[in-house]
């Protein structure tokens, strides 16, 4: 009986391994622009992942808004050491490699 169960189990594992891979996530890149700033946003599966703000008028450096991950947010904060906020936290890149 055990000899019959092993090939059936191997066949089941092989068929699940050959199943279709999961579909690629929907990725959206949007740009909002006016006379003063340019805002570039990256969304994956409808959730904002990266927001970059570029100032056109002054020589202020570009900055990125670190978007809080709603799925990982706990009652005590974001888990990243950053304060809890609904919109995110601004981050300036000091060095570029």
Descriptive account of the structure:
The longest helix has 16 residues, at 2-17. The protein has a five-stranded antiparallel β-sheet, with no helix packed on it. The mean pLDDT is 76. 16% of the residues lie in helices and 33% in strands. The termini are far apart. With 97 residues, the chain is an alpha+beta fold.
Question: Any chance you could write out the topology, listing elements then pairs?
Answer:
Blueprint: H1 2-17, E1 27-33, E2 37-44, E3 47-55, E4 63-66, E5 89-92
Notable characteristics:
97 residues, 5-stranded antiparallel beta sheet, 16% helix, 1 helix, alpha+beta, 5 strands
Q: How are helices and strands ordered from N to C? A: HEEEEE
* End-to-end separation: 62 Å
Quaternary structure classification: single chain
**Which ranges are low-confidence, i.e. pLDDT below 50, for 5 or more consecutive residues?**
none
User: DSSP helix count?
Assistant: 1
Strand order of the largest sheet: 1-2-3-4-5
């Amino acid at each position: 009986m055990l000899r019959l169960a092993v090939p059936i189990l191997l066949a089941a594992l092989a068929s699940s391994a050959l199943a279709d891979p999961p579909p690629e996530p929907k990725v959206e890149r949007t740009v909002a622009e006016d006379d003063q700033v340019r805002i570039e946003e990256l969304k994956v599966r409808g959730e904002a992942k990266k927001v970059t703000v570029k100032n056109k008028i002054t020589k202020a450096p570009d900055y990125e808004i670190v978007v809080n991950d709603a799925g990982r947010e706990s009652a005590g904060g974001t888990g990243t050491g950053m304060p809890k906020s609904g919109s995110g936290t601004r981050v300036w890149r000091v060095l570029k490699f």
